[in-house]
Write a structure and sequence with these properties.
The complex is a heterodimer of chains A (553) and B (206). With 553 residues, chain A is mostly helical. Helices cover 70% and strands 0% of the residues of chain A. Chain A folds into four domains: 64 residues; 67 residues; 274 residues, no CATH class; 38 residues. Chain B folds into two domains: 133 residues, Up-down Bundle (Four Helix Bundle (Hemerythrin (Met), subunit A)), CATH 1.20.120.1200; 34 residues. The chains are: A mainly alpha (553), B mainly alpha (206).
């Protein structure tokens, strides 16, 4: 082995020779695959026989791969041009991607509807491909025509297993996006709040590719094991933290129809998963064989056990008011616009909403409750000994939980996936033709609103983190036992009495609803005004530094 | 260096075996996927229960216990008893187990302590578990199991459960509440710092 030298470090890894080789290889592979696809298509067209579907599938696959190869060759040949286009168009690509994802995600819902319609026509066992084709063409005799391909694509969708696999893929994809976007956003928010810029370089537009670059860096890092650590448990811990965080999204309804599994016990399922996730942190702290990690884990355990109680009591209030544990039903009950949101139903649900938000901050280890990590006291708490992808898994779990509880707050108290506008305004389009339903579902009441509200509360979490100092452990306990717990008791008792004594529609109920709605609206307006003020004055330094130069300066 | 025995586990063979087993026992479960899932989850449950009994490190025992409790919850989910499964997760995995691990962390000073049962203890455990096994199998064989309703569990099980807890089973429910209250009062009594008595002078001496 020759020794590693500074010259080696400076020499580019991907040389011109490599580039030419890759270019030639991709061009040859692409042309070959395209030719194969055309040839296969010709043969299949002649044969039209038993292997027709397989041949067509092969053609599509080979054609797509060939096209991808040619695209890769194009990118390599014109890398500078592609890079420049990507840099200039970063923001439109980002926005287009968001809209595109929403529209793309609309398609499965329509497909499911069609498949369910066909399934309803054929009661009994699984529907065959031929029956699908007949239903699609409206011609029972047609066999293996062009619609056969579409029927073949629809056929797996009739099984719950396929839908579950698709849903899990969607959840994993969404959680990855949330984590990557959330980390970048947090760094930007932190930067702005501290009068700096945050990530600006990677990817061009405001460092939008920073999380991607970080992810690549983390993948390459050495996977360190500590001497004296319990290796098996050390390996297990990130998964014990990560899997419950993923499971949260199984029951979380993005909209009335957009939910992986509409569980009858969805609410307590999420509550259970929040509780189980703590074990990963505990395990990480213990298995690291490190005092800092251990202290962080103990703090997390203390905090979680204590804050589960106010959290549970705060959850009881919406459960009691609506009489259901099903999250979609809780969401549906708040469909009528701003004033029907549960937080504004009576004073006690308002209290419960606030307590819920504070308790979820503690259960997600977010500031001011971020004692388990406490980077100024405990190095990094339970994360101290982790590196590389295991470390990244903990962060994925944390950001997934943050978004999940933020979204849960919106489902329980702030109108779920409904816009603040009254329901009657959009009622005509909700049952109209397809394009009207699409517009209604995307813009008026649908996953966009859910995600927006989720990210609003996510932003509030970031805001609090970079505004408030970390509190001491005894203050954490004091806040839980002496403040939040009595408050939830008051909310629970008061809500019981309110439901018992105050009839809906009575003047008291209406007046309280009006007042609370006004408070909520004013809060949102005030927050928006603060954000706008900060945005307009984003080039000014905060504090007295800007106006009072140092003597002699 | 023994690197990752887990990676060498013949997973395809295991899957094929469980599929075969599912075929052999296809009578109770009409859905082969469900049968495969059942055998996998049952294997995890039993395996972690064994691990819990065999392990010598107390935190590893706790983690094996997590596998067992989670496996049982998954079994409940497989049987469409979602409420029971979720409660299992909240009470045992999310509550009891965390308290156990927390207690272990607070109290165990040495990391390398190995817990090995004495032969007498092993013998006693075998006798008790054998008796339990015989009893359980006897009950299982004698019981006339009602067939599950077609199409999974009926809707509204949670409401029905709540209703029956507050009507038919009100007395056991209230008894459990009273018991829990007594436990809480006892815990608060035990946890309070010792009050200085008359002859004690000024506080605790160090």
């Amino acid at each position: 082995m020759n020794k590693f030298s500074a010259e080696d470090a400076l020499r580019p890894r991907f040389t011109a020779a490599h580039k030419a080789l890759a270019l030639r290889g991709f061009v040859i592979a692409g042309v070959a695959l395209l030719a194969a696809a055309v040839g296969f298509g010709f043969v299949a067209g002649v044969a039209q026989g038993v292997g027709y579907a397989a041949a067509v599938g092969g053609v599509v696959l080979a054609g797509l791969t060939g096209a991808c190869c040619l695209l890769a060759a194009f990118v390599i040949r014109f890398a500078a041009l592609v890079g420049r286009v990507l840099l200039t168009l970063a923001l439109p690509i980002f926005l287009g991607g968001v809209v595109g994802i929403v529209v793309l995600a609309w398609i499965p819902a329509l497909l499911y509807e069609r498949v369910d319609g066909i399934k309803a026509d054929h009661p009994g066992a699984a529907v065959s491909v031929a029956q699908f084709e007949a239903a699609l063409t409206g011609n029972a005799a047609a066999a293996r025509g062009p619609a056969y391909l579409a029927a073949l694509a629809l056929w797996p969708l009739q099984f719950q297993l396929t839908r579950d696999v698709l849903a899990v893929v969607g959840v994993v994809g969404f959680v990855s996006l949330v984590a990557m976007f959330g980390i970048w956003w947090e760094r930007k928010v932190a930067g702005r709040m501290q009068s700096r810029l945050g990530p600006m370089r990677v990817g061009g537009w405001h460092g939008w590719a920073q999380s991607l670059a970080d992810g690549l860096k983390l993948l390459q890092k050495e996977d360190i094991f500590i001497a004296g650590a319990d290796r098996a448990l050390f390996r297990l811990a990130p998964y014990v933290a990560f899997i419950p965080a993923m499971c949260l999204f199984i029951a979380l309804p993005f909209s009335a129809a957009w939910v992986a599994r509409d569980l009858e016990v969805g609410l307590i399922f999420i509550f259970a998963m929040l509780g189980v996730g703590v074990l990963g942190v505990l395990l990480a702290g213990w298995a690291s064989n490190n005092k800092w990690s251990m202290l962080g884990a103990m703090r997390e355990a203390c905090q979680m056990i204590s804050y589960e109680i106010p959290l549970g009591f705060a959850l009881l209030v919406p459960i009691m008011t609506l009489g259901t544990l099903r999250l979609t039903a809780i969401g549906e009950a708040q469909s009528g616009g701003f004033h029907t949101w549960l937080a504004f139903a009576n004073p006690f649900t308002f209290i419960a909403a606030i307590v819920f938000f504070v308790a979820t901050l503690a259960s997600c280890k977010r500031a001011p409750f971020d004692l388990p990590e406490a980077e100024s006291e405990l190095v990094a708490g339970y994360l101290t000994e982790y590196s590389g992808f295991r470390w990244a898994l903990f962060f994925f779990a944390e950001y997934a939980e943050m978004f999940a509880v933020a979204a849960l707050a919106s489902v329980l108290f702030f109108g779920a996936w409904y816009s603040p506008l009254p329901a009657s305004w959009g009622a005509a389009w909700a049952d109209g033709p397809l394009w009207q339903r699409a517009v209604h579902g995307v813009l008026y009441s649908g996953p966009i609103w859910f995600v927006l509200k989720g990210f609003f509360f996510f932003f509030v979490q970031l805001w609090l983190r970079w505004t408030l100092p970390r509190i001491r452990l005894d203050q954490v306990m004091y806040a839980c036992v002496q403040v939040l717990l009595p408050l939830t008791m008051v909310a629970l008792l008061g809500n019981t009495l309110w439901l018992w004594l105050v009839r809906p529609g009575a003047w008291l109920a209406v007046a309280v609803n009006l007042i609370l709605t006004a408070i909520g609206g004013l809060t949102v307006v005030a927050m928006a005004a603060i954000v706008l003020y900060g945005y307009l004055n984003r080039r000014r330094l905060v504090g007295t530094m800007a106006v009072d130069p140092l003597p002699g300066g | 260096m023994t690197r990752g025995w887990l990676y060498r586990l013949p997973l395809p063979a295991l899957l094929a075996a469980s599929a075969l087993a599912a075929d052999g026992a296809a009578a109770p479960a009409a859905d082969p996927g469900k049968a495969v899932a059942f055998y996998l989850v049952a294997a995890v449950t039993v395996g972690s229960a064994l691990g819990c009994a065999i392990a010598t490190n107390i935190v590893r025992m706790a983690m094996c216990l997590l596998g067992t409790l989670g496996g049982v919850a998954l079994l409940y989910f497989l049987m469409s008893a979602t409420f029971l499964g979720v409660i299992q997760l909240i009470v045992y995995a999310g509550g009891t187990l965390i308290v156990i691990v927390f207690g272990v962390m607070l109290t165990s000073r040495a990391y390398g302590v190995k817990l090995r049962p004495r032969p007498v203890e092993v013998l006693a455990a075998l006798v008790v578990c054998g008796a339990l096994l015989v009893g359980l199998v006897a009950v299982l064989l004698r019981t006339d199991w009602p067939a599950a309703p077609a199409g999974g569990a009926a809707e509204g099980t949670v409401a029905a459960l709540g209703g029956s807890l507050l009507s038919v089973y009100l007395v056991p429910f209230e008894l459990a509440s009273v018991l829990l209250l007594a436990v809480m009062i006892g815990a608060a009594y035990l946890a309070q710092p010792a009050l200085p008595t008359a002859g004690d002078g000024a506080g605790p001496e160090e």
